[in-house]
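Worked problem 6 (solution included).
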Amino acid sequence: MSFDPLPTSLVRDLEAIEASSDGVVVELGCGDGRLADHLKHHTSSWVGLDHRLPIPVPGIMADALDPPLRPECAGVVLAANVVRHLSDDGGIPANWSNLVAPGGALWIMEDEPVADGEPGALYRDLQRCLDRLVPGRKGTLRSLDWFRAKLRDQEGWTFGSERNLQPVNDPTALLAGLDRYATEDPEVAAIAAAIRREGLDYGRYWWARRVRENRS
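Solution. The predicted structure is:
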């Protein structure tokens, strides 16, 4: 996951918070902080939340699907590659929207499950394979169409798609992990060989943004 470059609208939302010195950016499911490194170029008000250690500082160890935060606490609430862990029969948690202060924005960003032959197809196959090896760790890549169909309230959303430009410069650790399974799993062996041969391209990602209206 890299999400680089960030959507222009997200950068504007982050910089608006920084300029006003009012509000905080909450990243749900922050993981090891790779996305936070990009966000912190535009805001110093970042707080991460994840249920696995280690969590970047400042961070909270908690379930991203049920964050223990007070309502209207954040100017931006961001969930990146978290929707893939939601059930097929439900939309996004209502409490995510409740965390957003009036005038703030809820952001969803997800890796795009691209078609065969497109940049990112190998990354798509890798994510599916990793989820099979460690069930529930990666989740199934969700398309923007899937997300839009699951929204209970369609109003107020804007959507977009970006080409992920950040390369995976050193896949050594990833390949070492795959090699542990490669001798007994032909799919893993094929993916590892393809990464060594071709490198790894993140492909595209999609985003969805919803601004919470100011009180009248």
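Discussion: The first strand starts at residue 25 and ends at 28.
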